[in-house]
Amino acid sequence: MQSAAAAHRVHASPPMPSYIPPFGLRTVVGCLGMLLAVHVAGFNEHVTEIGLTDIRGAMHIGHDEGTWLIAIYEAFNIAAMAFTPWFYMTFSIYRFSIFMTAIMALLALPAPYMPDVTALCLLRAFQGLAAGCLPPVLMTVMLKYLPAEIRVFGIGGYAMSATFGPNLGLPLEAFWFEKIGWHWLYWEIIPLAALAIGMMAYGLPKDPVHMERFEKFNWLGLIVGVPAICSLVIMLYQGDRLDWFRSPLITHLAFWGGAAFIVFVVNEAFHPSPYFKIQYWRTRNIQAALLSLVGILAICALMSEIPATYLEAVRGYRPIQTAPVSLVVALPQLLMLPLIAALCNSRKVDCRIVLAAGMLCLAVAAYLGTWLTPDWVRDNFYPIQILQIFGQPMTVIPTLMLATLALGPADGAFISGMVNMLKGLANAVAFALFSALTRRREQYHSTMLLDHHGTHGLALQGEGNAIAGQLAGTSVDAGHVARNSLQVFHTYVHEQSLVLALADLYFALIWVCLGYAALNLVLPRRVYPPRPPSSPAPMR
């Protein structure tokens, strides 16, 4: 009997590998590979978006057609984030992450050689779909594979995708276009993606595949949810250009997309296998964290867009000349994110206080921006950017802590899809707000300036026409001088009205930042950084 039992033990099948591997160097390499893959996806998004003007010139694409490249990519990118958790739980994190990273990189190869805009939009749609699958996996990897005592540092690593990556997009675009060639605006992700795949293949655990989950597959949620999210995102990106609801396209996207989204939300609330749980919105911390996440990321996007727009439109800077303004914020994040994560990892520190202090930093930065004038150059923005070095990580990390640490380990997959979808929507909301508010405030100030000129122009007639005086020596044709004088005058009016519009945006951001600071001091309950469970005392 004993020999039979021994033989049975010898020939028994080996145990399945642990779902959560013991923490070590291999796990660290896998997590860093996943982090690199997400940054590659972010570069693929931001670099091509910032360099769209250069891409359009190289590929002979018109302005209106070029806006669809951004809208379609972002629509599928954000839609993918909502449904990713179900698929990586089914196919395993290991296989799903490597496959999507490889697809994203391979689709970059033919991008510069697409024959027309339609083919390029189709390719970018699939590339956005693959890239959008990676950020939710990163959040799960950081929360699942890192030990409890350093899990907040994992949240800080995920926060890099919201602070470090977007601010690095402009310098990368400037480097690739000015130094290497415009093709590399697409191809830059290929070597980095190959490195990320190698690191993930080495370090991520090979989880089992659960194909039985397809027995309860949420077909209605997928069929209704993807068009709903894509419609709403395209509406945000194309709304201002098409004059919002005066456009039949925007009206249909808003009506049918909104109706489909309502059906999607109702289906998620009652389906036995949802993509994310709507019931989380009943929790105060989730309400505050998710609402704050959208607002904070939109604020950060707006405060990055305003200097770039001013320096390009008013001062005529090229991206390579604007790059130092973004690098001032991007590079210090490599130090600030771990420091803020270490601060929030202390049980003596309330992350809500850190969040409120970060919002105050952003409010002071916005206040400094209200002094914007047409005489500003790149150096004038550095104090504003320095405050953002502290403000961005101090707001993003505590917000992610409030959203994730109040839930159990089994809830991570459901919250990751929701958090990342809202993270993507924040960029779309920021784009729509910036386009709409800038255009309307610029039109308002332009009208007021021209009205004052028409009202008080005669009072200054004795002072002479300074513009005409400067241009008088350029031509003997008085009509030609008059036309040039009028053109220069309208250029000055445009510059002044744009500067006033951007200053108005800074002024509005002051009150938004203060509102979010007050909200997060009152609404969410305090969460504590996780700690490993204490081992029971030995029996005596």
From TrEMBL:
How is it placed in the membrane, per its record? Multi-pass membrane protein
**Keyword flag Membrane:** yes
- Where does it live in the cell? Membrane
Any keyword Membrane? yes
Record key words, sorted: Membrane, Transmembrane, Transmembrane helix, Transport
Q: Listed GO molecular functions?
A: transmembrane transporter activity
Gene Ontology cellular component annotations, sorted alphabetically: membrane
Q: Which residues cross the membrane?
A: 23-43, 68-89, 96-113, 125-145, 152-172, 184-205, 217-237, 249-267, 288-311, 323-341, 353-372, 419-438, 505-523
Q: Which PANTHER family match?
A: MAJOR FACILITATOR SUPERFAMILY MULTIDRUG TRANSPORTER MFSC
Q: What is this protein called?
A: MFS transporter
**Organism annotation:** Acetobacter indonesiensis
